Amino acid sequence: MRFLTELPNELQLHVISFLDQRTLLSLSIVSRHFSALANVWLYRRIYLNDSKIELSPVYQLAPSWTWFQLKTTNRTGEKSEKANQKLSLLVRTLEGNPRLAEHVCEVRLNWDLDIDLQRQFIKILTEHSSSLRIVDNVTDPKINTAIEGSKYSANLVSLDLPPPNALPTLEIPQNYIPDLKRFLTSRLSSTIKNLTLFMDPIMLLNNVVKIQDKLEIESIKLHCRADIYPPSLYQRQNREQAELKDIIDTRYLKTLTIISWYDHVCPERVYKFDQWASFKNLEDITLIAVTYNDKKIANLLRSCHKLRRLKLDFTLTLRYMPRDGEVFQAIHSQRKNLEFLDIKVQPTFKVVDLDLRAFKIVIRSPCDCHLCQNVVVNNIFKKKILPSEDDYTIRDRSFETYERVNYYELLAQSNLFPYSKAVDKFPSVKTGPEDIDAFLERFNDSNEGRTGFIPLDSTDFLHLYQCLIHTMRSDLEPILNEFPRLRFLVFNEMSFVVKTKGCSKWAAPLFYSEGFEPNFYVSDADRSLTNTKVYGRELYLN
């Protein structure tokens, strides 16, 4: 500490930017001096979460954010209640000391937290923080009324247009379109760089407001929903602005996010993949819950020669991306530049499988290591889960026994894998009500009636999880071999950081990684391409 105090304030501020939230909180009570420095980073980027944030024991994820410390709960409504209590305390703190608001540069709101509290929170910031630049994930028009006309609203580079209702609906409030038009007219300008829409951008910028010049935005997030608007909005009034490239300048757009709310197969005209392919400078593409379209999506990916980040999440018809499809080949064509990749592919190896000819359950080891062969297969499966030879025979044509003992399928259906839009940029949220103990209790309860079954514990969970990673060798090894710049990989919802040692690199799990040993290493000819340094808080919003 003495060494730190001898540095100039600017260097002290830089050094503590690498500290995590818990350490910053501890630092803030050391002295007034360090409290002032810590508050700069504690309030800089605020993430309003209603669920527990999972930390990684091997990597400091999203170090620039501050969030609520919450616990996992399976009681309905309890997690939002706790989060709202903390949000209320935050609002009270800022009201009592408005100078703290000046530190806030970016906030991310939450769909499930109290709207009036969030509106109050944003009202304080837009009245007292000249530093505020981004208000993300605006969920209700009420929040935009807090922004509109406030002292520092002109400083914002983000513009979110929330939907008329929380869920897609056939009935639009009468004041929604007039209010939307008024808000757009007052806020849409050349200073806006981040745009979030819940309406077709062509319809919005033709029939709600008309723009004279193309938007020079750098990031767009498009929510595709089945809201039904007045018929007049579907009659295009400007034939010269018929495509996305006519309203958005293709030179500047770098980040594209498309999120689908449809519960059925959605036509391409909703997503407009062909039109987005005109934006050659895209560096970051995220597609969430979209309908799989092999040719259209592949064409989009191939057209973006600067692509560095990619997240693909499909729904309906295909959950897993086919390996022989054009999309998979298009990803491979971008292998030299990709630094972040999040995909779902059908696993090539199963520890628990089914022999339909013999009507038997088959247990296989993915490799000959001590963990997989002795700990998981011999000790957990053969001694605890399936201790008798009779356990392997399927006697019911409903396959109920197989489903009960198929641990990995149950794990895949759980919410134990922390979720993040981008694991290195945003906090990883525990989305479901279950923790490890609750999941194991459910698995144990479903099998307790079988003779000889021994309940699993948290140590077994850790061993089974790490064995699952070993099953992915044939999937992960080619990716690490052929994607030289890759730093983060999310494969089938399991998150990895690419680590290096000497001339070798491997995929290290970000969660449940205590004592993990990889079962393969990849030779890295150019170590400079896989730099895994921790980014400090000062990297953001400069």
How does this model look, in words?
With 542 residues, this protein is α/β, with parallel strands linked by helices. Among the domains are: 157-346, Alpha-Beta Horseshoe (Leucine-rich repeat, LRR (right-handed beta-alpha superhelix)); 349-486 and 503-541, no CATH class. It is built from 20 helices and 19 strands. The strands form four sheets. An eleven-stranded mixed sheet has the order 6-7-8-9-10-11-12-16-17-18-19. The chain has a four-stranded parallel sheet with strand order 3-1-4-5, with no helix packed on it. It has a two-stranded antiparallel ribbon with strand order 2-15. Helix 10 links the parallel strand 8 (219-224) and strand 9. The longest helix has 19 residues, at 78-96. It is globular, with a radius of gyration of 25 Å. It starts with a helix and ends in a 19-residue tail after the last strand. Mean pLDDT is 91; it is low at 526-542.
Short structural description:
The protein has 542 residues and is α/β, with parallel strands linked by helices.
Radius of gyration using CA atoms only? 25 Å
Give the averaged pLDDT, no decimals: 91
Distance between the termini: 27 Å
Oligomer: single chain
CATH topology of the domain at 157-346, by name, is Leucine-rich repeat, LRR (right-handed beta-alpha superhelix)
